[in-house]
Amino acid sequence: MKLSRKNGLRASAIGALVVSGALVLSACGSDDNTATPDKKDGGSTSAAASDIACEGAKGQLLAAGSSAQKNAMDLWVKNFQAACSGVEINYQAIGSGGGITKFNQGQVAFAGSDSALKEEEVAESQKICKGGKGVNLPMVGGPVAIGYKLEGVDNLVLDAPTLAKIFDNKITKWNDEAITKLNPGVKLPDSTIQAFHRSDESGTTQNLGKYLSEAAPADWKHDPKSKSWPAQGGQAANGSSGVATAVKDAEGSIGYFELSYATANKISTVSIDTGAAAPVAATSENASKAIAAAKVKGTGSDLALSLDYATKAEGAYPIVLVTYEIACDKGNKAETLPTLKAFLNYTVSEEGQKVLADAGYAPLPAEIAAKVRTIVPTLS
């Protein structure tokens, strides 16, 4: 397994954001999972998960939602299960919308979502969270990459208006004047653009829509809050993995998915012309510069964040998402509550956050992570 170089980054604003540029397939299993006795919890642990506190975790914990965080979740689940014998975390990557639906129907202990709960979804959650409600707990951030497959084109630059027109089926040829202007000297083919989007409800779709709405309002007139693909035309695929596979297999294609999927599939990604001095590549480091400026808009135990998608800061990649775990602040099921809290305590811990950079994600800003760490133990 080949690792790219690691770089550290400290960003201010809402805290230090430590990011490594190393990108690997979570399926590679680079962690040492040699089991050793855990005297504190009576289970087994691995070298990579030696500090995980099981704290009464037992049995099966069901969760579902965002496919954006699947690669991160795979790492977390592997490490947690290695540390806590007899525990099974079952996370279904069915999309943010599907996860929230299952959560509000009481089918899962928590949902993963790439966007915060809407007001009506919070209201719906009160039927399941007896005496409480669903809250948004930020857990991981990262760039939404625009991947493409175009023979002979290794470096492609696009801006928000051009992307909006491509995904809205208004630019349909690769040698369109708008694209050639952004790529002087690049030989672009006179071929049809095959644009792929998500077929399922997705917070990744919503984050892309928010970016296009804020950065290209004259060209993207669709509802930025929609988790369903709002535009006409294009081709659909299920989940981030489905879109990535479609782009990888189709010449002349373009689509959107988290950076980890582009890395895993060796898909070229677009650099974004934001109006800064130079186009910005989709990297964890560059995404962290945008995420570091996020503001907390939630109240109480809710830590929903507001992102600046229209940033023109030097080196800041603007198409980013912060993905949440959604759980009841009060009214969680008694039989799964200890496992829920133990698992989320691990995912937001320094150790849990550290593994994210190796999967193409950006760990949480230090200040936000600290707030999540104070809230998880209070879930009841």
UniProtKB/TrEMBL annotation:
<dbReference type="GO" id="GO:0042301">
    <property type="term" value="F:phosphate ion binding"/>
</dbReference>
<feature type="compositionally biased region" description="Low complexity">
    <location>
        <begin position="231"/>
        <end position="240"/>
    </location>
</feature>
<protein>
    <recommendedName>
        <fullName>Phosphate-binding protein</fullName>
    </recommendedName>
</protein>
<dbReference type="Pfam" id="PF12849">
    <property type="entry name" value="PBP_like_2"/>
</dbReference>
<dbReference type="GO" id="GO:0043190">
    <property type="term" value="C:ATP-binding cassette (ABC) transporter complex"/>
</dbReference>
<feature type="signal peptide">
    <location>
        <begin position="1"/>
        <end position="27"/>
    </location>
</feature>
<feature type="binding site">
    <location>
        <position position="114"/>
    </location>
    <ligand>
        <name>phosphate</name>
    </ligand>
</feature>
<dbReference type="GO" id="GO:0035435">
    <property type="term" value="P:phosphate ion transmembrane transport"/>
</dbReference>
<keyword id="KW-0813">Transport</keyword>
<keyword id="KW-0732">Signal</keyword>
<feature type="binding site">
    <location>
        <begin position="66"/>
        <end position="68"/>
    </location>
    <ligand>
        <name>phosphate</name>
    </ligand>
</feature>
<dbReference type="InterPro" id="IPR024370">
    <property type="entry name" value="PBP_domain"/>
</dbReference>
<dbReference type="InterPro" id="IPR005673">
    <property type="entry name" value="ABC_phos-bd_PstS"/>
</dbReference>
<feature type="binding site">
    <location>
        <begin position="202"/>
        <end position="204"/>
    </location>
    <ligand>
        <name>phosphate</name>
    </ligand>
</feature>
<feature type="region of interest" description="Disordered">
    <location>
        <begin position="217"/>
        <end position="240"/>
    </location>
</feature>
<feature type="domain" description="PBP">
    <location>
        <begin position="57"/>
        <end position="351"/>
    </location>
</feature>
<keyword id="KW-0592">Phosphate transport</keyword>
<feature type="binding site">
    <location>
        <position position="96"/>
    </location>
    <ligand>
        <name>phosphate</name>
    </ligand>
</feature>
<dbReference type="InterPro" id="IPR050962">
    <property type="entry name" value="Phosphate-bind_PstS"/>
</dbReference>
<comment type="similarity">
    <text>Belongs to the PstS family.</text>
</comment>
